[in-house]
Every structure is written in structure tokens, then in C-alpha cells.
Amino acid sequence: MLTVRFELRGTPLQPVDEFFSREHRYSLGVDSETGRHYLSIPVTVGAFDYEEYYALDDGHYARLLESPLAAANFADECRRREHDDLLIIKPGTNRGVGS
Known about the structure:
With 99 residues, this protein is an alpha+beta fold.
């Protein structure tokens, strides 16, 4: 298992993916430091790839785990930046494009 630690503005994030869809390019998981649930999508900016993490409450997380179609639709909405208010780590000015 690959564990990545991000630290930005004093906010540690230790994501642990519990489900991922290679086909729809998203992951569902939990931050092992806070217990906060998230959906993440891959993002590309130039030659650099990273993940954007969107906070989910417990109910929303459970619904997305139960319905891969709903999770894929939510991930697509995130790619269209329709849920930027849920971003755990706010992107900088050179924000990438969801892939």
C-alpha cells in the first residue's frame, strides 16, 4: 500500500484509500489523522500530477460507497469544479485539470 503524506498550511493529510475505480478515476477513503472521509480525483498541471481531495460527511461517503455510479457522477462534477467548496486543500493559482 502506498501512503502519501501532504502538509500544507499546517494541515496534515494522511489519506488511506478504501475504494478506487480505475475506470472512473476516483478514490474514496479516510484521512487517518482526522477520520474525515474524502473522494479524490487525479489532476494534471503540465508534467506534474497530483490528487484533489473533497471532504464528505459520513452519510454522503456511505452513499457513494454503496453506489459506484453515484460516486462516478460526483467525481465528474468535481472535475468540472462544481464542488470546490468541499476541497480539503485549496489549490494554488496554477490549478491543474481533472483527468
